[in-house]
Structure prediction request, 250 residues.
Amino acid sequence: MGIYSDYAGSGTVHLCGAAAALAVVTVLGPRKGKYSADGSSNAMPGSNIPMAALGAWILWLGWFGFNGGSELVVSSEASAIAVSQVFLNTNMAAAGGVVGALLMSLILTGKMDVTMAINGAIAGLVAITAGPSAPTAGAAVLIGLIGGIIVYYSILFFEQRLKIDDPVGAISAHGIVGIFGVMVVPFTNPDASFLWQLYGVIAIAGFTYIASLGVTYAINSFMPIRATDEEQMAGLDATEIGVEAYPEFD
Prediction:
């Protein structure tokens, strides 16, 4: 019959967070200027790509503790070997994710988009999180590579087709790839069942989205969460904390 298996949380952590994020943007709506009158999307680049990349590399490093720590014990040779396999697979999947996202960017645009590389790394990490102990290193690379490809297309689909404004691609990287990570577990873990993995995905995403939607609507009813048009034009650095990130550009 099999079981639901999610070693370190592709579903319980990442899909859960993405479902909550989707609920918030459902209420929040797109940023001013994101979509034109004809429905086409407009690029709104981040202000500091090097800092975003640094944040991703810090996440990458932290993931060794996140996944490796989920083994919970390193008191025997067997558990130490298991943790080392988790470390190896975590790193290989992240690298595969970067390659997958960059390949898609290069093939489709002729450029290697750094922001897609960042999301590719996160996608690879999310994809392997549900089952980092069982695959071989080669399988981990493949899982990460597919995760990187998925996140590339998913970001474009949410932005251009569904008109959902997700500035950093979190719903795609953590949600869509999180689903993939959960569903791929039975390929390397014979104890896991595709049916129970699917049940887990539906339960986590469904409950979290509905609960988060209710809470967000309630908060928004007495404390609007969307910045006004004027605040968006001035920038939240100035309107929220009274400091300009780049005063020389005023």
The radius of gyration is 19 Å.
